[in-house]
Model the fold of this input.
Amino acid sequence: MLVQFYNVSKVYSNGVKALNDISLKIDRGEFIFLMGPSGAGKSTLVKMLIREEVPTRGQIFVTSRSIVRMKRSEIPVLRRNIGMVFQDFKLLENKTVAENISFAMKVVGANSHDMRQRVTEVIAMVGLKGREDSFPNQLSGGEQQRIGIARALVNRPLLLIADEPTGNLDMDTSLEIMELLYDINRKGTTVIMATHARELVKNSYKRVIMLDAGTVYSDGSLGEVSI
Amino acid sequence: MNTMRYFFSETLKSLRRNQLLTIATLSTVTICILILGAAVLLTINAGKFINQLESDLEMMVFVEDSLDKNDLADLGRKIKQIPGIKSVQFISKDQALAKLQSKFDAKQYDLKKTVGDNPLPNSFKVKAKKPRDVPQIAKQIFKLEGVYKVNYGQGMVERLFHITRWVRIISIILIVLLAMGAVFLIATTIRLAIFSRRKEIYLMKLIGATDWFVRWPFFIEGILLGSMGALLAVILLALGYGTLVNNMQTTVFFIPLINNQKELLEIYLSLFGAGAVLGCLGTIISLNRFLDV
Done:
């Protein structure tokens, strides 16, 4: 078991109830779509997984470790096992493709030899070979998201969380990104993808967790749940 | 090693990328340290002047004429035994008259002839170890037998101490306020630098950077800006103070200005250190808010 949520609730200090008594289990190697309308609690759930937010009530375990009781100094270790992909890519504009990716390895103190080797590897994996020295603004949206994915993968995370990764992309590019994410999942990385895009989920035959008003509305593979 | 190189290269990149902000911070620190340094030099010089004024304080103990040689020696011993006494010097009637006479021109005015019998009393010139104890010691001496008057500039001395105490308090408050102002200004400019990189900091934290990994480049930047600014200020201050000392020694020579190279070097080094510390403090104040991810 990779992730477990036990009766997790979250009420923000302004009184907004984001999550209400959520229990979930996610196995290693799964590919999960997290769906629901705006304000359903998708972002809060994702933020809790990386310990950006803590639940008001309940427990969350990642690799059998409680991340609720985790000390501040232990948070970086948790985050190094989780790769994050963002809707707005969050790339550093003044760094090249290779630098944006190696940045994630520098942050965790990797040595330069390992860094060079691994960066070349992930750049090939996401299909950006030959673009290493380009700057993000010289690339298309899809290519920029590929940098984001490479950066999330470079430290070999157990879990990849993609928060609306296709939100800023057209349909064809979105499908390419989806293929890349499926490929990463096939190689063993657990993937959780929060999305609004029903058309990407429809033919995926993956597990879909539907959230609505802070609760799990439905949880199952396609056919078992209606989206 | 790799990480250290990363910290320094990040610092240099940030300084280069935010050139305008770098210049703004640098000049802020320079001006702050310059004012702070001027205040410190002023305070130290005022303190020295005050110390000199205070150490000049002495008591004149006048004794009754009826005391013979033995009584005088006895009284001298008794005064010496009072705790806090630094020195006791006996001045006989004749010495007193001679001293008075020396103030007049002997040829024009012979005091001895004019006044006949020497009317001046025997006396002791007494100095206290701590000038502040003078009024209290004077009271004790006055109680001794054979003493008829103790003079130390009553009233004036108390007022002097009152003034010097306030000068000291005000200068300390001034320095503390200036230092606080400097920290605030540096913190604000560093906060602007951090704000322009908040996206990067957020990303670093999400990727799994420790707080210290994020902090170090900013710390180095803060310390570098603080000490570079302080260095500039110290150079300006040293030039300005050197010129001032040279001019004042010829015009207002009675005000003692510190001109001891070792002492001055210590002050300048402290100011330089203060710049680095202020830079560091400014970074701590500004950074923690952005690390809370």
Remarks:
- Chain A touches chain B through 23 residues (CB under 8 Å).
- The first helix of chain A runs from residue 42 to 49.
